[in-house]
Amino acid sequence: MAKDVDHSQEQKFLYTLLFLFGFGIMAWVPRFPEVKANLGLDNGAFGSLMSTGSIGAFFGLLTVGHIIHRFGAFKVTLISITILFSSLVALVHVQASALFLIFNILFGFGITAVHVCLNSQVFHFLERSNINLVTSTAGYWSAGALSTAILSGFLVGRVDLVTHIDFLCVVITILMFALIIRLRSVLI
Fold it and tell me: What is the domain range of residue 56?
């Protein structure tokens, strides 16, 4: 059983989760030319294929809130993190467009699922503490996204795409799992 956390700890954990979320999902963006080269596609085909992530995001928006209320945020958040980062790992490994399409839809779903899970917890925190973290957590997400864009851009040509994303996804998944487990007693 997770030890109770106070509002100050919970706030720090939520900030860290949102930072890691932004850091993780945006890490591959500066490396799109390498992903496109893996698939052997031109810009138009790659752009069209990338847009399919919105299909998964759409279904995530329709379903994840209901799933959280049915099964609880703990299980749903852990599963969502797993879907998100395992699909990102797959996206940098595949060389077939059809497989990329499937994993990109899963990635879009994973992004939305984690987003809904984390922001549901932010609103739950607001209800319990009367402390509004909505805008500040968005800032932490943005800080994570910006810092990973800078780091990933620096790593291009220095660290292999697959090594970079595989390592990053494993580390971020472990860190996010540890934080969610620590927050278990206060999750919806």
Answer: 7-186
Tokens found for residue 165: 């994303």
Residues of 69-97 as b/e, b for ≥16 C-beta within 10 angstroms? Answer: eeeebbebbbbbbbbbbbbbbbbbebeee
Is 41 inside a domain boundary?
A: yes
- Per-residue pLDDT tens listing for the chain (188 residues): 446 899 999 999 999 999 999 999 999 999 999 999 999 999 999 999 999 999 999 999 999 999 999 999 999 999 999 999 999 999 999 999 999 999 999 999 999 999 999 999 999 999 999 999 999 999 999 999 999 999 999 999 999 999 999 999 999 999 999 999 999 999 98
Q: Which amino acid is at 9?
A: Q
Number of domains in the chain: 1
Q: Tokens 């278990």, residue?
A: 184
Strands (E), 24-109: none
The CATH number assigned to the domain holding 160 equals 1.20.1250.20
Has residue 2 been placed in a domain? Answer: no
Contacts of 111 (CB under 8 A, 6+ apart): 25, 53, 56, 57, 60, 84
DSSP-derived secondary structure letter, 159: S
Q: Does 93 map to a domain?
A: yes
CA 26 to CA 43: how far, in whole Å? 19
Backbone angles phi, psi at 174, to 5 degrees: -60, -45
